[in-house]
């Protein structure tokens, strides 16, 4: 299968690299020219929980038009850039192109659908963690399940095909009939982990080592769960707080994407994670003071970058 990975950050490289190893034609698309050039010259270096290796049979480019038509486009750009990135990649779309979003936050499905059409979009979540170490070099920091599904809950041949393909590439993948609930469930973990790690500099697992951060995690997730309930979202996790703590433990050594962003003075996804809960809460009449505080603090950090 010809696969284009839109956004070759740590997670895009992890999935793209493994799929290339499994024999697929994979193109990594990213704006970071040094990263792209390094991959094309030296291959993609992966280390961490899945072993150390250099993947040579993979292509990278800064120009989507270099790829041609893709069978599958996996969207891994930051959620704040989704709309712009997909609009700039319409040359990837052929008659049977499918888009898969495994991104964090809310709004990605809608932004992709506006450009490509909702019928092309499959959504999913993953519990894998990955860290960018440098151009062409990532660390696979944590493993977990991947779940994908059609937006309407139907179990189709294309989603079963993708699940099988991901399993063959080493990602333990399930097909689910409530992928929207899965996206919101993953959001719970992002709500509890990302902003707190970015503010404290702690690894995911360390949040549970301090009563103060554990309490804030619990309060932020409870607010988000109340918003989901009011909105009529059926979460896939029975206890969102315990689910978030489980994710902390499974990815204990991981430095969250938001912590990596703040460390490198990049724009974070705060507005589509905690900020999205604040906006949804306002619309539904659900108070979200903890998420408002976390959103404001991260926003101030972003504004203070030199």
TrEMBL record:
A GO term from the CC aspect: cytoplasm
Gene Ontology MF annotations: 2-dehydropantoate 2-reductase activity; NADP binding
Location of the Ketopantoate reductase C-terminal domain: 178-301
Annotated Ketopantoate reductase N-terminal domain residues: 3-152
Keyword terms of this UniProt record: NADP, Oxidoreductase, Pantothenate biosynthesis
E.C. designation(s): 1.1.1.169
SUPFAM superfamilies assigned to the protein according to its UniProt record, in alphabetical order: 6-phosphogluconate dehydrogenase C-terminal domain-like, NAD(P)-binding Rossmann-fold domains
Family: Belongs to the ketopantoate reductase family.
Protein name: 2-dehydropantoate 2-reductase
Organism from which the protein derives: Koleobacter methoxysyntrophicus
Name of the coding gene: panE
